[in-house]
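Q: Second attempt. The first request was missing the SMILES, so the protein and zinc ion are both included now.
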Amino acid sequence: MRRLTPAEIEAYDLVSPQIARRVQVQRTPLLTPGCSGLTIGRLVLIRNSHYTSSSHDPHLQERATAAEGNVSARQALLAHELVHVEQYARIGVRRFLWRYLREYFGNLLRLRSHKQAYRAISFEVEARTATAAWSTRQQSNSDH
Ligand SMILES: [Zn+2]
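A: Got both inputs this time. The predicted holo structure:
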């Protein structure tokens, strides 16, 4: 279990320093299949094997975005999970989980696909959008 370094807190400016300071990152060998990161409250679990990657990774979008810039897949994943930490802090753990699951199962009934249902959850859309914008900013920062 580790906290973010001051340099990381500054770099991951897609969330406020107050949020980034509270985060605890834990590497874990096991997570839900197809899942490379999982956030509960301020605890971020990152799967060890994320670096070797799997074909059915839900964070492929961020990875593709990251590949274009100078942000690594690992950094993009952490950035994505930090947005979830911010979301939990914003509405509370119980409400986050309740809304997240309600949206997921609603989407699943509508879309009939786990992957599409997952991707359409509003919290995931927000996390993807914020991470993509952050990755782009990192890229343009390095251009100057
Ligand atoms: Zn996510």
